[in-house]
Amino acid sequence: MDKNELQAWEYKCIQEEPAQCMSGCPIHVDARLFVKQAGLGKWDDAQKTLAKTMPFPKILGRICDHPCESVCKRGEVEEPIAIGNLERICIENAHEKVKMVILGRKQTRVAIIGSGLSSLTAAWDLIRKGYQVTIFEPGQRLGGNLRDYPETILPPDVISEELSLLENTGATIELSSNISGSDFISNLRKEFDAVFIGLDAEGLNTGVLEHNGNSKALYAPLTMATSMDGVFAGGKHTLNGRPSPIYDVLDGRKAATSIDRYTMNSSMDSGREFEGPYTSRLYTNIEGIAPLPRISPADTVSGFSAQEAIQEAGRCIQCECLECVKVCLYLERYEGYPKKYARQVFNNEYVMHGRARTKNLFVNTCSTCGLCETVCPNDFYVGDMMLQARRTMLKNNVMPPSFHEFALLDMAHSNGEHFALSHHEPEKDKSTWLYFPSCQLCSTSPAEVEASYGYLRKNLEGGVGIMLRCCGAPAYWAGRDDLFKEAQDTIRQEWEQLGKPRVITACSTCKNLFQDHIPGMETHTLWEIVEKCGLPQQSPVCGNATGAKTISIADPCMSRHDQETRESVRRIAQTLGFSIEELSLSGEKAECCGFGGLMFNADPAMAKNVIKHRTTTIDPPDTSLYRTTVNDNDYLAYCAMCRDNLAAGGKRTSHLIEHLFPTVPGNDPAARGWISWSERRANRTRVKENILREHGASEGAVVEEFEKITLHMTPEVRRKIDERRILEGDIKKVIDHAEQTGKRLQSLQSKVYRTYLQSDNVTFWVDYTPADTGFTVHNAYCHRMNIVGIKQ
Amino acid sequence: MKLPLEEPKDWICTACGCTLDIVKVGFTYMKGNFEVDLPACSSCGLVLISEELANGKMADVERILEDK
Lengths: 792, 68
What we know:
The structure holds two protein chains of two kinds. In chain A, 40% of the residues lie in helices and 12% in strands. Chain A is of the alpha/beta class. Chain A folds into five domains: 111 residues, no CATH class; 156 residues, FAD/NAD(P)-binding domain (3-Layer(bba) Sandwich), CATH 3.50.50.60; 75 residues, no CATH class; 249 residues, no CATH class; 79 residues. A five-stranded parallel sheet of chain A has the order 3-2-1-4-5, sandwiched between helices. Chain A has a five-stranded mixed sheet with strand order 8-10-9-11-12, sandwiched between helices. In chain A, a hairpin with a 4-residue loop joins strand 20 and strand 21. In chain A, helix 4 packs across helix 7, helix 8 packs across helix 11 and helix 20 runs parallel beside helix 30. The longest helix of chain A is centred in the first third of the chain and has 20 residues. The two termini of chain A are 48 Å apart. Chain B is of the alpha+beta class. Chain B has a single domain, classed as Ubiquitin-like (UB roll) (Roll). Helices cover 24% and strands 34% of the residues of chain B. Chain B is built from one helix and four strands, in the order ββββα. In chain B, a hairpin with a 2-residue loop joins strand 3 and strand 4. In chain B, 26% of the residues are buried. The mean pLDDT of chain B is 88. Chains A and B meet through strand 18, strand 19, strand 21 and strand 22 of A and strand 1, strand 3, strand 4 and helix 1 of B.
């Protein structure tokens, strides 16, 4: 990821964009933070938040016409937060005095005419920037039209106290100034480096300036510059026909910025797009936000009591986006959001000293399922970013093999002699169709795959060939473009050799990868063919006397952009007699089961947690944002890994193929439960051998001596070693080695043997005892650290 | 590095017929090298690593080195 890419990713995520109340405020008061602090009764903190951007908060806090309220998201549910009233109670309750911090004195002199809000703001901003400011006020005291407010709203002593800040900071104040002379402005301009004119100053003669038809001095809306060089004007602003104090403040602020730029000789108009109110890019989902009526103050004259104000502030939604985090446990558990994650990924690659590379696991845990992209208002696809980061890690030679090795070895098994096969239909020499049932469906439902192949051959004409292989998805997810290309090239070549038949897939991942990477390959799903040719005769209708059985369809993440397949599956399920209760996250919002992106390999604990949340109602929830719903009824999957992972999590889940091609009559497929990685491999081999047998082959792949060893173990041990990704073949190899070489330890107490053997990057340990036939395995574990040897 | 040990005297090496001693065992992982005191057969070098050690401290160190 280079800097430009980082910026592009960062721009897509809008979580850090300001809330609408802030961007909609002409001077960008952080109203979200202010309301939060008000809700906690932290009045001094809340006043500080106001004072950060608001001049004279004790004045403006009482009279602001709060256009922020009109863009408040709470207002889309019912009434907006009463931000204006909260400001008032805040400044009444805050004890701290507002301070002005001056940044380095300058010699540049600026004249300010009038002392209404626009003039006062221009003065305030320029004094803070170190300018020598002189205020020319025609009246006998500062404040201009601020003095017109009723005392109950804006007491005169508040004005005087707040404006004393100006005197204390060394501004020169000329009261009772005669500003009516026709050359007053021109003379001031000669004497000062720049001039600001408050258009509300009574009796000012602006004759030297250009005017509009209403005899109001003209100024540029962006810079507030008048027709006279170095003279700026503003104020007397109205909004919806009423005077707007906050827009007067904005005028003064814009003019101060312009004067600063003018006297420094820098560009007057560049980079000013976000001055004044604008619509923030922040998205906040208000779906499910319960209506809460606005709090009415008991005393309408004096406004909110502190308690009422706290209650009112409690209605604030505290707008943010986090749409992706709400639907992804992985994004939630890393306690950030994509913009932050983009910076972490960038730093992981570029900050080479100190805390570099602490995000390797994070980069490799994403399931790349794409749900984030679907729910993101800007289509931020975290998976894409993570896949790119994985490729960069590989290129830089810093990818720990442990993250993907088990999955890549499983893929190698599928593409090796124990499974890989491509053949025309027996006794046919051409294929119009090619069945590609997928490695993992053969792993979990071998008999059903064989039955479905029989069905296809019976129902389709022109020959139905079969190809058993892995589509290369694990390599794709691992960022291993070399291995992925190899897998896809082989499939393409064999498909071409078979005469480019139409391909029938039974796995959404295979289908996606073929469509994206093998041009010209026409793909269909098994479900589509079943719908066209009619349900197989043996598939039972699942409804009973009391009506249809309700199931929830667990769409695979890989069907996210494949509405046709999702609908096809639903129609078949209904024909089978099921009624469907949809999951809250399904269809294009389908969740991943933890297999995608090789999450299960890089971070097994995270993958297990994902499944736990998808199969068990966790009460109370253990995450602050991520909530998924678990439906009570059985789940129906049409992805082998979804079926297996959901079932391993304890949820009654079946695969569609088990209903269409049941191999045991009256069986309850949802009761099948988990399946081990060793069984998966054995099942794949079985599918291949059975197909070869039909072709007249008498023997399957060569079985090595050690593979013939019989192992005995309890179901608990079997499950434990499977979760540790230890295959029975690994254990057999270790025992065989120990028995051949005698290299093993024995416990004097239990007589159990313990031995180990390094195989590629993993050292496997086995506790075992000889049995009548074979060996009883008591335990097995492994580590990746390499034992170099003992130091004598 | 100090690690919890299984009692070496509870185990014998069946190839050499002797009990185990605590010796320094060298390891490598992800470009890191380290030595740990572990029970092992001084004669043939067969070492003893417990399940607790493999799944505990060793797994932790592996994870740290992978994210470094």
